Amino acid sequence: MGAFITFPAVLLLIVLLAIAGYALGRRKALSFPAQSTHSRPHQHAWHVVFATAAPSLLVVMLWLFFAGIASNIYTNMVTPDDLVDVRLSAQAREGLTEREIDIREGVLRTQFVAGVRSLASALDGYVADGNATEADIAGWNAEQDPIADRLRAGGQVLGPAVTNGMLSVAQVVRQFDRRVGTVGPIISLVLAIAGFVIALRRISAEFRARVVVERWISGFLIFASTMAILATVAILAALTLPSLSFFREYGFFNFLFGMAWAPAGDVVGIPEGRDGSYQSALGFVPLIWGTLYISLVALLVAVPLGLLAAVYLSEFASRRARSWVKPALEILAGVPTIVYGIFALITIGPFLQAVVGATVMPNTVSVMTAGVVMGMMLVPFISSLSDDVINAVPQTLRDGSLAIGATQAETVVQVILPAALPGIVGAIVLAASRAIGETMIVVLAAGALSNVQGIEPNPFGAVVTVTTRIVAVLTGEGSGFDSIDVLAVFALAFTLFFITLALNLLAQRMVAKYREQYD
Amino acid sequence: MSDANLSGAVPIRKSSLLEQSALVRKRHRTGTILRWLGFSAITLVLMFLAILLWSIVSRGVPALFQYQAQIELYYDPAVLNPDGGDVSAEEIGTINLRTGFERGIFTSSLRSTLENAGIDIEGTVSRRWTAEAIGALDAAGLTGASAIIAAAPTPADAARQLGQAGSAVRAAVAAMDGDDTNAAITARDAAAQALNDLGFAQAADRVASIDPSDSAALAETGYQAALTDAAGALRQPAQFDDAALSSIIFATNRRDVRDQLVDNPDLVGTTEKTGVPIDISVTRYLSGELSGVGTAQMPPGFDIGQLALVDAMVEADLISNSFRWHFFTNPYSQSGEITGIGPALMGSAYMMLVVLVFSLVFGVAASIYLEEFAPKNRFTNFIEINIANLAAVPSIVFGILGAAILFTLMDLGFGSSIRGTALLGGLVLSLMTLPTIVIATRAALKAVPPSIADAALGVGASKVQMVFHHKLPLAAPGILTGTIIGIAQALGETAPLLLIGLSVSTGAALLSSPFSGGLLEQAQSMPTVVYLLAQNQDAPVREGLAQSAILVMLVLLFALNILAIILRRKFERRW
Question: Which part of the chain is the ABC transmembrane type-1 domain (chain A) (predicted)?
Fold first, then answer.
């Protein structure tokens, strides 16, 4: 019985019910004389569909999500505190403070719970494939049977080695999962049937199905538009909570004014270095130095080129030239940044090295390599934004200037550019914000894998930046929230987010003010 | 002010409209400079674009072709079925890949193929090394070396003799450096004698005539280096073994051949002509990028003996250059010979599917609400600010959000199997695409003239009906264009995917269909595979195949963008 009430089967049932609901609802509505009904037959039909599917699907989704969490909490609850798997041995306890023991046992417990849950799902899969019966498994003994090998041979994915403690807890958890896995689909199925029956019975000539359906629709529209808020809130939460615990652990000023960046993989709460500090050096200064250095080079390349290009395109170029150059610039803007990064790494880097010599530039990765290419990437950004701004300068200003005898160049330099200045500065600020947040170019071309720890003044030397350190720590088998380095990376993202947010708000205000001036 | 000018009080200027004064010329010159600066800025940027595209195409297209050795692969029963009798699939499955397949099948097949083609393997190798030795001796003025080497019973003997002569010369240099003149003369004469014994009479005379205190003159002859090098070169052929032979082709871990045999054990004992990839380092020699002369021009890990064999294989027409079809189907691998982007293309397609469904549904719904239904109040204002800001958040922050969700879910007990899934990647990319779609949709909805809405409302449609029956269909082309552009952006995004573990999920072969859980399997994606290829240890992979993968990605991007442009041209309506 239990085997048939699974979520895929229930989903199928709900869909079938909804289709049937549409057909039946429509038929019933059609049976009324056309003039006497408030709503059209298909509106009645849709009403049945919504009533059948919406609540039950919502339950399915929530259940799928919370069943996993509930099972985790349950596993935690049923794991006895005195189980050897979750206790530090007396030997390991020696010389540790109460707090450190707690933290380490917490880590053990988390691992144990994860192991139990993967074991439980592996056992489920093993039984479902027909490799063993429940009775077989009840008789297994982890100390004698090679359970992990047996399960892996059956094609199951398994975490660490299996112990008897894990096995016994896993059996309890499986029972719980089975119950949860049966109750959820039943609830959603009952909801679907209830919705189906009630909605069908409500169909009558006076029933205002259209109003109800439209209420459903606007409810969904409002929900969808709050997604943007949800995303922002999620970002803020994701950045703030780990950052705060990092600042509490490591010290806000140690981070902000730290002069070296050298993560060493300490576990949060257990400073392993001498004098009770963390071994990892997690200072912000070298990173922001590298970031700003590269951004500066990029802007020095991008701003003159972008502005000149914009002025030329909007004031001097023929219509034909514009129609060719603008799409070409758009291509440049549409190229993914990783392509720029690889181009910098294998073409620009060796070229620069050949030009300035290997003594000045020991590696092909450097501030200049990344900066020049990033500058080129920003040119279309600056030129198209400035182009818009220049085009928005009222024609009367141009005509007035030309009419009093100024040449075209004088009009551009002395009238149009000053008039467009706030907008242009806004564009540059936006470009700076993009340069600071840019990742792949700097990861590939500024020395992501280098072991620079401090400040590098040489423009042809490798540097570390905020974004490259985030990638370096979080790429690969990230260890979750229990490493101080991971928390530090969240703090980096936190600062990055607020720097770029501030720059963006500033740019938006500038552009908005500029618009007001001429509207 | 203008009145004053008209009053006639100003003296008449002696200027003409037809003739430009110096000042006017100067003013116009500034204009010309500005114009030229702008022009050269654009030229520079376009040149950069051209170089960028050229560097991708010129490297990526040749890398799509692969040199293959045409080998008659003999599925040797002696290796595959040592105990005789019937071969079973299980038996083949247990045979070691390295000893059984790489050594037993591939190396011996290569050897027999070469022999069948009339190539004397050891002879070719030793001839090349002998030529190298003679070249070294000739360059130092030790003429007649070929006869001397030919006269020795074996190359090893010749090597020993040359080595001894070299040691004698070195000893002479050392002795002549010292203060003992007699010892210096003895050593010098011994060196001359050794050279004379070998048959280098001219060189022996030259050594004998050197002033015993002038060690520099003897060192300058370069005899010692030449003799030692030649001896070294002559010793090389003896070290040429099966491992050196098989390293020319890519035979490492030939799982595919074993799988083929497991599926079809009847093949054992038969011969099959197959193309086996040439080692990726050697391809640069074959394509002429490395000349094979001098250490800097050698493929890493290879010597001239192996290159001589490669030359012989080229001459015997055993090496072909064919299109690398498997690049589009194979999974990513560290080895450039068999690496591919199949699962990456698939993973990217899955992610784009998620992005399409998620951001289109939510993006369009949100835009409709904001544009048509939302009252102007603080709440909707707040939503608008949020959307504007989401559009400007650096992509890596979305990656951090994804990582936080991942860690949280893992802590909550979803296991680490959700790391690097197409669903997670797609959701993160959707959040990034959402603002693009919202902005495009709102612009498209705004462009629909109010008369249409008024007409619909006027004949009794409800607001929902007006929007869904009239405005939305008219705005659809604009929405579609915006969606395609948003998806094209999402396709190239790398950083967020790196942070949620797509760079480490290299295990997946092909994913299941999205309806049977393919979205929840560990996926690869195009940009992350490009990233991995760009960091490969072999230069041909870094500089060649990474560019091929980029080329594929760019072709997809351009196709999407062109689709967007065509749709816009075709359906765009102006009222």
Answer: 288-507
CATH number of residue B404's parent domain: 1.10.3720.10
For residue A282, the 8-state DSSP code is: E
Q: Are residues B449 and B540 in the same domain?
A: yes
Which of B481, B364, A50, B389 is CA-nearest to residue B372? B364
For residue B67, give the 3-state DSSP assignment: strand
Quick check: B520 contacting A, CB < 8 Å?
Answer: no
In chain A, list all ranges with CATH 1.10.3720.10: 284-468+494-518
Burial class (CB within 10 angstroms; exposed 0-12, middle 13-18, buried 19+) of B203: buried
* B560 and B489 within one domain: yes
Query: Domain check: are B442 and B506 in the same one?
Result: yes
State how many domains chain B has: 3
Q: Answer whether B78 touches A (CB < 8 Å).
A: no
Q: Are B67 and B286 in contact (CB under 8 A)?
A: yes
Same domain assignment for residues B309 and B375: no
- Spell out which residues of chain A touch residue B406, defining contact as CB-CB under 8 Å: 478
Q: What is the pLDDT of residue A476?
A: 55
A210 touches chain B (CB under 8 A): yes
**Burial grade of B296 (CB within 10 A; 0-12, 13-18, 19 or more):** exposed
What is chain A's percent helix, strand, coil content, to nearest 5?
75, 0, 25
Domain end call among B270, B296, B323: B323
Same domain, B348 and B419: yes
Stated pTM of the model: 0.83
DSSP state, B13? P
**A86-138 residue pLDDT tens:** 777 777 777 777 777 777 777 778 778 877 877 887 787 777 777 777 777 77
What is the ipTM metric for this complex? 0.84
Instruction: Let me know if residue B228 belongs to a domain.
Output: no
Torsions phi, psi for B72 (to 5 deg): -85, 100
Indicate whether B202 and B311 sit together in one domain.
no
| Residue A126 falls in which region: left (phi positive, over 0), alpha (psi -120 to 50) or beta | alpha
Q: For B519-575, what is each residue's pLDDT tens digit? A: 777 788 899 899 989 888 888 888 889 999 999 999 999 999 888 888 888 887 766
Q: Using the 8-state DSSP alphabet, how is residue B11 labeled?
A: P
Position of tokens 């001397």? Answer: B148
* CATH superfamily, region A284-468+494-518: MetI-like (1.10.3720.10)
The pLDDT of A485-507, averaged and rounded, is: 89
Evaluated on CA atoms A239, A241, A243, A246, the torsion sign reads negative
B67: left (phi over 0), alpha (psi -120 to 50) or beta: beta
B49·A332 Cβ contact <8 A: yes
CB proximity list for A60: less than 8 A, separation 6 or greater: A7, A10, A11, A14, A184, A185, A188
- DSSP structure string for B501-551: TTTT-----S---GGGTGGGSB---HHHHHHHHHT-SSHHIIIIIHHHHHH
User: Taking CB atoms and an 8 Å limit, are A226 and B383 in contact across chains?
Assistant: yes
Q: Which of B362, B488, B504 sits opposite A224 (nearest CB)?
A: B362
**What are the Cα distances from residue A409, in Å, to A312, A320, A401, A415, B444?**
10, 21, 11, 10, 38
> Is the Cα torsion angle A149, A155, A160, A166 positive or negative in sign?
negative
Among A residues 380-419, those touching chain B with beta carbons less than 8 Å apart: 380, 407-410, 412-413
The Cα–Cα gap between B470 and B465 comes to 8
Q: Please report which helix (H) or strand (E) contains residue B319, including its range.
A: strand B319-323
Q: Residues B205, B293: one domain?
A: no
Asked whether residue B208 falls in the same domain as residue B354, the answer is: no
Question: pLDDT over 70 for what percent of chain A?
Answer: 91
